[in-house]
Amino acid sequence: MTGRDEQAEAAADIAAVEQANTAFYEAMERGDFEELSGLWLPGEDLTVSCVHPGWPVLTGRGEVLRSYALIMANTEYIQFFLTDVGVSMTGDTALVTCTENILSGGPAEDGNALGPLVGQLVVATNVFRRTPDGWKLWSHHGSPVLTETGDEEDEETPS
């Protein structure tokens, strides 16, 4: 294989990983549990894992997928704006890092209207494995980004 062929193959792999990553977030936005399930590695031979912000480590396909079913059932609206997306690869493993700028809302207490929308920043790492069926999620780890409130500036340090 020539250098040009290797570059083209690497570019195609990166594009495929980026598309798999985008599909993951789009499935969450639509609340499409069936599609989301199909994006994770099948079977339990390679144990998948997931860390949602503030949650313990979830391991195993069943536990991870149950967490997404729970999130989808309790989230009326969610939208992800991904920034700072980076992809690195080695062999059949790809690592995607990004910032999830999340806008979400639950059901309102008074009936059909949407509840208040909440913004949140999460930094995420998504690990994908190459399979005969394309790139599949092996692990997702999300960590909240703490924002400064300005309170620190108001505190005076005793001398």
Automatic annotation (TrEMBL):
<protein>
    <submittedName>
        <fullName>Nuclear transport factor 2 family protein</fullName>
    </submittedName>
</protein>
<feature type="region of interest" description="Disordered">
    <location>
        <begin position="140"/>
        <end position="159"/>
    </location>
</feature>
<dbReference type="InterPro" id="IPR037401">
    <property type="entry name" value="SnoaL-like"/>
</dbReference>
<feature type="compositionally biased region" description="Acidic residues">
    <location>
        <begin position="149"/>
        <end position="159"/>
    </location>
</feature>
<feature type="domain" description="SnoaL-like">
    <location>
        <begin position="17"/>
        <end position="145"/>
    </location>
</feature>
<dbReference type="Pfam" id="PF13474">
    <property type="entry name" value="SnoaL_3"/>
</dbReference>
<dbReference type="InterPro" id="IPR032710">
    <property type="entry name" value="NTF2-like_dom_sf"/>
</dbReference>
